[in-house]
Amino acid sequence: MDEIFSLFPEMETERFILRNIELEDAVDLHEAYSDPDVVKFWGTAPFTSIEQTQSLISDFHKGYEGQLTIRWGIAEKEGNRIIGTCGYHNWAKKKFRSEIGYEIRKSEWRKGVMKEVLSAILPFAFQQMELNRIGALIHPENHGSASLVSKFGFKEEGCLRDYQCVDGEFQDLVMHSLIKKDFAQHKKNAWV
């Protein structure tokens, strides 16, 4: 499993390169993180400075070095511009579980980006990371994200009341999960 961390694992989809996020990507990412609509359900207030975005990129790097996080930049094949990120955090290797997260700039919504990206990173989690369970914590009003993960076989497990605090306001989150055996069966049924 540790070979994942010897070299950042890049992947390619039809339209995107999933790659390491560099500090030079901060300007592109800041467009997403400073947009209230993009971070509405993300558990944070919109970023107001490029330094906040740079700090988050540094946190992604530290999490990767500590083997707790893998966060890919979603880069367009043409131009290599980052339009968002995706990946895993709260990785508990000995428990064979992690949580998934993702976001893209608003101009890319409803273009099938995340469906394409999740089609690459979900198999990676079960095969290379050797996960048995992937959790997705989703705000109850984030119907788009709930619909997306359900297409991959995630099951809604229940509401975590007042689970996060954003700008002094406590918010519920709904836990969804995907288990390795269910993913294999869902994939088999979906592609028959």
What can be said about this structure in brief?
This protein is α+β, with helices and mostly antiparallel strands and 192 residues long.
Topology:
Elements: E1 11-12, E2 16-19, H1 26-33, H2 36-39, H3 50-65, E3 70-76, E4 82-92, E5 97-104, H4 113-127, E6 133-138, H5 143-151, E7 155-166, E8 169-179, H6 180-190
Whole-number mean pLDDT: 92
Q: Please give the count of helices.
A: 6
Roughly what fraction of the amino acids lie in strands?
25-35%
Secondary structure: helix percent: 25-40%
Low-confidence stretches: none
Shape summary: globular
SSE run: EEHHHEEEHEHEEH
**Strand segment count:** 8
Largest sheet: 8 strands, mixed
Q: Distance between termini?
A: 31 Å
Describe the 3D structure.
With 192 residues, this protein is of the alpha+beta class. The chain has helices at 26-33, 36-39, 50-65, 113-127, 143-151, 180-190, and strands spanning 11-12, 16-19, 70-76, 82-92, 97-104, 133-138, 155-166, 169-179. Strands 1-2-3-4-5-6-8-7 form an eight-stranded mixed sheet, with helices on both faces. A hairpin with a 3-residue loop joins strand 1 and strand 2 (16-19). Helix 1 (26-33) crosses helix 3 (50-65). It is globular and about 45 Å long. The two termini are 31 Å apart. The relative contact order is 0.14.
